[in-house]
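I have been asked to look over a protein record a colleague put together. The record follows directly below this note.
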Amino acid sequence: MKRSKVERQSMLKEKIELTPFVTDEQLAKEFHVSIQTIRLDRMELAIPELRERIKHVATNQWNETVKALPLEEVIGEVIDLELDERAISIMDITPDLVFSRNKIARGHHIFAQANSLAVAVINDELALTAKSNLKFTRQVNEGERVIAKAIVKGKDNRDRTIVEVSSYVENELVFTGEFFMFHSSNEKGEN
């Protein structure tokens, strides 16, 4: 049964409020309409596009929290952060991030998302990657969304913070990395 425009827009607004990181494509499938219809509905309702919604949430929630680097230097969009505990970021694989011939994401972008998230999760003004162990488990293609999840695991025998980052595309592991983070409190004998 086809919904009226008013009913669809009301449901659309509610859906975006509940899940602000939902894409227009996902909304179009859910509401059985074209992507253009979703975009027109969003415009009429003054709901910004996904990237702007993400930036709004990230800026409002994390700008004062991230210490080790400016939020705009984190690769991907931070959507969850608890310093010295965990962090999550998302990155859409756009044409500028892939090889032109095969549309596969360049590995350094996947690494950069994970590494910058490992830096961002550290509760210190200075955090640097001292060492990392990485594994790419499958290629990532243009149009896919990478969700990176960082978890602080503890300290190594040199007092460096160990951050484990796992990156997923639709719940499939595509990258994993163990980052050994040096930070300025290491020098001061703190933490």
